[in-house]
Fold this sequence. Notes:
Elements: H1 5-33, H2 39-60, H3 68-92, H4 97-104, H5 106-118, H6 125-142, H7 152-182, H8 184-206, H9 215-236, H10 241-244, H11 251-263, H12 269-286, H13 294-303
Helix pairs in contact: 1-9, 1-11, 2-3, 2-8, 2-9, 3-7, 3-8, 4-11, 5-6, 5-7, 6-12, 7-8, 8-9
Amino acid sequence: MSKTPEHNAAKAMTLGAIAIALLCAMDGVIKHLVATNDALVVTLGRYVVGAAFALVIWQRYGRPTLTREMWKAHGARGIVIAISASLFFWCISVLPLAELITICFVAPLLVPFVARFVLGEKIRPRSIVAGAVGFAGVIVASIGSDFDAVDHRRMLGIAGALGSAVTYALSITLLRGRAGKDGPAVIGVLSSVIPGAIIAVPTVMTGELPPASDIPAFIALGAFAAAGMWFFARAYAHAEAQVLAPLEYTALIWAALIGYFLFAESPRPEVWVGAVIIIGACLWGAREPDSLKPAAAMNAKEIA
């Protein structure tokens, strides 16, 4: 029996939510590591260890062929990922995690427009409204934050966060263009190997080796990264980029929990009010009967 578009959309939302949770856990590990390591070293460690886990997944999937066309297509995305990740990892060392996540929430708002120009997806009014309501929730959640003591380094951090958000939106859109063609195993490998190779060059010249005591944290970093990428690839094979984009807002919930349990940061009431608005926007935006293109539906069956 063939699966309905509604069933595939629900499955995509579930897979996407899991991916966000895993990547937020990764952010928590990053925040821990950049306190004692150079940001480039942490970035490279994420992709080196992530590539190892991705290769295990690739082998369990039967070692699907990595064609020249795949390497070429993912090469462009790898450059975008390397830029986005390097900026984000550095910003974690400059800005509070909650503030950084808040700024980066502009990325889902850009996805429908980027997808329109890159993939030719039609911009749905529902996606625009859901994104606007979700961003309003982000504003509510940020009320009461400390925006005093603006300095040069903090302004660079904000600029870097915006740059990371723009390149992240582009990388997610490019992922949508390949998810149905390549499958999660191939995407997981290429999404780690290519950015890692790009980042390795400046890291070797400027970075220092991390202490042995940080190796377990680097392993956890790679595991969360590989698992999150795998779930993202599965999710984007089942739904359009703009349908899943509002899910990015749920990262605020995970950031609050990670901050509370790992970094002794007590979430303000505004955070939870904003979270309710964000979740409501995500659920409403996902209720789209024709949220899955026929071609994507066929590819989803092949991957499932």
